[in-house]
Amino acid sequence: MNNINWRGIDLNLLVAFSALMETRSVTKAATKLSIGQSAMSHNLSRLRALLDDPLFERRGHQMIATEKAIELIPVVEHILQLITSEILQPDKFSAQDYQGTLRIGLTDYAELLFAPALFDAIRKAAPHSQLSFCNVDRNNYQQATEAQKIDLIIGSMTNLPHEFDSQYLYTEDHVCLFDTKATGLSSPIDLARYIQTPQALVSPDGKLMTNVDNQLQQQGFQRHIAVGSSSFLTIRHLLSGRNLLCVVSTLMAKLDVFNDELSQCRPPVDIPDFDINMLWLRRNSNHPRLEWLRQCVGEAVTLRLEELRKTH
Question: Which of 16, 53, 61, 236 shows the smallest number of beta carbons within 10 Å?
């Protein structure tokens, strides 16, 4: 195996061999492959050198295959068929028959909003598959995608590196969420009441300061962040019955995961909207299974958005 001259092996030579076996003529084989006769003659010379066999011997106007060439016919045809069917034209993906694992990376936000809908949609289309939700954020998604072999990600990641491709899903905005009785607040909230009320912060990276604080400082104001957590569920628990206010995404505020009745209104500060995207490794863009998964996930997210926007 170590003595094989791999640099001399060209798959085009197998195609040339197949054409020569079929036509038994250098001229006809060249015509079949749309190349010049001299090029075909060169291919035959290379094949003879590579296989150490004449392969074809001329007798009158016909080329007679050697025993070596005849032995190679089924092998070469099998290799060419394998390349055609399994590499160049892989089988279409059948979700109904798939029994592998589908791995979807979700931020805390995306998991709360879409995990049930994604499970239902994928389970219906691919009932024999396994589904793994992997927690990711904008700081670790690149490493997590490779380490955990994640198929696609849903989140607000921006400025993607070259190895990732993406599809826009929707744009999200913000609301203030609070317990009216515990805070004494009512909608709308002016800037003075907003600053005076202790605030909770959903912070994936643990920082207790955002661009909102920078904006307030430029205006000569400062808010008090009383507590932060990477988990929206933790913050949501804290808001009920406490003098706390939190700015959250509008769709998160609509989640029906608690029995409490928190109030919401537009923030009195300018907080930029953010885009939610689906992203995946660019090198896997054309894989049939992942093409199907992206379509399935995109449709499930769209239906879930319609449900959420109809509430409240």
Answer: 61
